Each structure stands twice: as C-alpha cells, then as structure tokens.
C-alpha cells in the first residue's frame, strides 16, 4: 500500500512535468515558426521598428484574456499539485523505508550465506560446527561438536543493540567470533545492520514460537509417555512397520502413513495432557532443558556441545558421543577433572544455580521471575547484589526488549512493535517462566 501511494505521487509529478514541457515546446514553436510575419519588400519597409504592433483593442481583449486564463490554469495546477504532493509525502517516505529495508534484507541474506550459514544453517534454522576446547593456557583438551542455535527467535530474547554487540564482539567462550569492525572483524557498521535486518526477516511469529517451545517439551516426554501407554507404543511401532512393508505399493504406503500420522497426533495430545498434569517444578525442568528456548544451554555444563571421537568411522566423520553414555563417561574421566561434570544448572556460560544460589540471589520468586522476564539491563542491579550487564549476557525470556535501545534504532529496525502499534510478546509466557523459577529455586 505504501509503495502504491509513493508510485501514484510520483506518476502525478511526472504528468505535471510532461504537461509543462509540452506547453513550453508549443510556446517556442508558435513564436519561432508562426508568430513571425512574412518579410516582403525593402529592408527599410520591414525594419523591426517600422513593423506595426497589435492595437490596444486586441491587447486588452483576447491577448489579455489568454494571459489571465494561462495564469489561472497555472495557479490551479499549483494549488492542486502541492496538496497532492503533501498528501503523498508520508507514503513516499514509507515507500523509501520499505525499499531500503528490502535492500538491507537482500544484502544481509548475502552476508549471512557467505559468513554465517555454515554454522547457523540455511534460513537460520541452526546447525553444528566442529571446534575444540582448551585449558586456560590454550592447550588442546578435546574435539567437540558445538550445537549452534537457530536465529529465528533471537530478537525475541535480545534487542537490536545486543545482537549488534554480539555480532561486533562475538560471544566468548562459544565458537561465535567477532564479525564487526569494533571487535576486529571484517564487517562494516552497515554490513552488520544488514545482517540484523536479515535476522529480523526470518523471525518466527509469536504463535510459531509458542509452538516451537511446546514441541521441545513434548519431545522430551515422548519416551515416558510411550512407556506409560504400551498399547499406543505397540500400535505406533506396527504402523511404522506397515509403512516399511508397503514398499512400492503406493495405496498401502499411503494408508499406513495416514495411520502413523493419526497415531502421532494421538501421542502428541497424550503428551500435552501429561505435561499439564505435572507440577510446576516438573514442567519447569522440561522448559529449563528446552534447547535454545530454555536455560540449560548456558547454565548447565556441556549442554550445548558433544564430544566427537575418539574413533572415526571411514567416510562418516567423527562419531558424536551421546550424553550419558558409557563412552562419554570414559572420555570425561580421562581428562582428570578438566571437563566439568554434567550437572543440571551447574554453571557454564551462565552462573551456577545449584545449592540454593538463586535463593540467595533473589529474596522472592517474584523478583526471580522479573529478572528472567526482562533479563539483565545495563547499569541496573539485580537480585540481592551484582550489576546488570546490558551486553545480552542474560537474555529476556518474557518480553520483547527492543525498547531498551529505542533511541538508537534505525528506521529499518524496530522488531518489537507490530503493525497495529502493539508490542510483540516475549518468547515464554509468564506461567512458563514461573515454572522455570520453581525448578531453579529447588536446585
């Protein structure tokens, strides 16, 4: 709609310009080709100062009327064109913003594909990257496979300024390196802005975010629900076997696939009911361990990466060791304490939350909920002590935090404000945050 308004205003201006140019051309042609009088006779008879001019009657009637009408027409054109131009100006400005945003998004996509997609995946859907962990002296300890988070919800947790800070300076001790010039990276300020604009373009809707959060906790209880419902488990196994057995029989394969889909839907409904029946700390534990939507990624050691090796299968690359497996336990033990134990809430990128740490940090559950909701703020203390850090150290999980840096936002950004003027909700609901807090205060 904005682009249409800008186009209409531009077309009107072009039409006025064409009318003015054509009118001026007619005026010149008339005066040069037809207004002159034929020259006959001697030069003395045709001298310019001897030519008779229009008499007063013609000057004060038809010529005067023509001049007045021309002036009136010009005034009407100006009187109509200027208000129309003024009315179209907001649309023209918005059209420019939309065009610039599209340009930023397109160039940001190119930057992303060149520099980011190898880790964060196509479309920002997440991925893995091989890296290593070292001791304080920089000595190699182990090869790992880092689980790189999806970026499709990043602006629900971080403000534009915080994303810019991470792009500029990286996020130690993760594999996220500094990309912006302030942190020694290769990207200019505009290129970082273009990346932010592309990241904004791939953000999920609030409904999709809540669906992703629910999908994650449903997946966590899947095995428990199947164990508690052996009949459903048996039917699902039989249906999947029927899909395999159908082979090239398209009709049988389609019927078996429909049966699998119906059973998966039944399993999901049963899982959601199972989650509703849990108490608050139990639901909180599921949410705490819910990948990029939860807390364990930062607050639990080794949650965001897996060991690779020690053996390599030919052609398959490093073997990723399953967490909790005997092989992983052997690898951890072999490092003599250099690798932290996998303790839920035991501390990693974020602080240790066990042994009543959150009870000492926050006097009440309400204060704890408030901090998880809005995250750390620059210059604002939290809990009983400490200093907030606005660099995105603790993201906001319950509100969209674009307003933190509203005064510095470019017109191309502003993710948190919806088209209807309302504010976009946070990634988690207040009930989900209360459940997480109930779990954390029990660690």
SSE order and pairing:
Blueprint (H helix, E strand, L loop, with lengths): L1 H33 L8 H4 L9 H60 L1 H4 L6 E8 L5 E9 L5 H4 L2 H10 L19 H13 L4 H23 L1 H17 L3 H28 L2 H9 L7 H4 L5 E9 L3 E4 L5 H9 L22 H5 L3 H10 L55 H11 L3
Antiparallel strand pairs: 1-2, 2-3, 3-4
Helix pairs in contact: 1-3, 3-7, 8-10, 9-10, 11-16, 15-16
Describe this structure in words.
It is a single chain. A 4-stranded antiparallel beta sheet has the order 1-2-3-4. The radius of gyration is 35 Å and the shape is elongated. Helix 9 packs antiparallel against helix 10 and helix 11 crosses helix 16 (about 430-440). It contains 16 helices and 4 strands. With about 450 residues, it is α+β, with helices and mostly antiparallel strands.
Gyration radius (Cα, Å) is 35 Å
Low-confidence stretches: 1-6
Indicate the proportion of strand residues. 5-15%
Assign a percent range to the helix content: 55-70%
Q: How far is the N terminus from the C terminus?
A: 54 Å
Tell me the total number of β-strands.
4
Largest sheet: 4 strands, antiparallel
Structural class: alpha+beta
Compute the number of helices.
Answer: 16
Q: Order the strands across the largest sheet as they lie in space.
A: 1-2-3-4
The string of secondary-structure elements, in order, is HHHHEEHHHHHHHHEEHHHH
Mean of residue pLDDT values: 83
In brief:
The chain contains 16 helices and 4 strands. It is of the alpha+beta class and 443 residues long.
Descriptive terms for the model:
443 residues, alpha+beta, 4-stranded antiparallel β-sheet, 16 helices, 4 strands, 55% helix, 7% strand, elongated, disordered N terminus
